Task: structure prediction
Amino acid sequence: MMASQASEILLPLSDEELIKRFQRGDEAAFTQLVRRFKDPLTNYVYRFLGEIDRANDVVQETFLRVYHYRHAYSRDAKFATWIYKVASNLTKTELRREYLLRRYMVQGISTDSEDDWQGWNVHDPDSPPDSQVDSSLKQRLVQQALMQISPAYREVVILRDIQQMSYEEITEITGLGIGTVKSRINRGRAQLQKLLRNIYQDEQELSHT
Result:
């Protein structure tokens, strides 16, 4: 069977059916899962880390983990939440590594240092040029604001408002209680609204100077 024919056969299958087929040795099913999740996972991790190269590395590692540990997937779970949990854990590890590296570099420089709303998606490439410019500006402002709130708030806001996940799915990915998830989302949104107002005002002032 040709690859294109295999792809057409697998296309209507659910994520859970694909991972089951992959667990039985169907490599084409894994390829289909990569096609489905590569872009949304990259968007999620990029929003979290703020750097596309690092996001690509994390997503690549995520798929490697899925490939090698495919039998760890429980058939009772939703595949999307499982793969997002893998990506979330790898992203948090990358954040901790970055934090430790920066702390080490700061301490190496000075020994006197003290311890001192919905649907923000990537723009449509087929949209009119003016619309793309406006969308690009909005994306940049949103990302700038996201990087200024704590990772704990950033993660749940991205999952809810950018990835459009339910509260239940977010609890499965993060391991947090639903009350904590809702609280962090509300606090994260409030911080973002304040930051976006300030950032937008700064942009307006710069454009008139």
In short: The chain has two domains: 11-116, 127-209. Confidence is low (pLDDT under 50) at residues 104-133. The domain at 127-209 is CATH 1.10.10.10 (Arc Repressor Mutant, subunit A). The two ends are 63 Å apart (CA to CA).
